[in-house]
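Continuing the batch. This is chain 6 of the set; chains 1 through 5 are on the previous pages. Same settings as before, nothing changed between runs. Recording input and output for traceability.
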Amino acid sequence: MIQTDTLSSSSRIAFIQACWHRPIVESGRDGFLEELQRLGVPRERADVFEVPGSLEIPLHAKLLAKTGRYCAIVAAGFVVDGGIYRHEFVAASVIDGLMAVQLETEVPVFSMVLTPQRFHDHDDHVAFFTGHMAKKGAEAATACVQTVRAIESIAASASAKAA
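Output for chain 6:
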């Protein structure tokens, strides 16, 4: 189990989820929140936000990061090939946007924006990707806690040297 004792008690995490394929994305959110709790971070320290689709996530992440309220932001979406345009373009745009947000704001941003090569809206695929997204949620929670702890450690070390 990861120790969370150095995670600042005032640290808050933003979780942004796209509404397309809601049941699949919500399984990722639930997996994230359950793992966060298991790691010792109370559920009340995570704020959940919804946006219409994955393309709206980067701007929302940037606006939340700029508030100074969040030590980390997690983005969840499910981008599939709908036959109108290439889903790889959407996924790349979202990931590029999230990377730009974290580099500009210095608030870590974690992506749970999944882009399966082949997804068909039938029971087998929905069940598989619902379970897969829940697993990714748990993995994102672990990465989030580890990263926030590392950043807080860097900040504490810098403060100690300045004193």
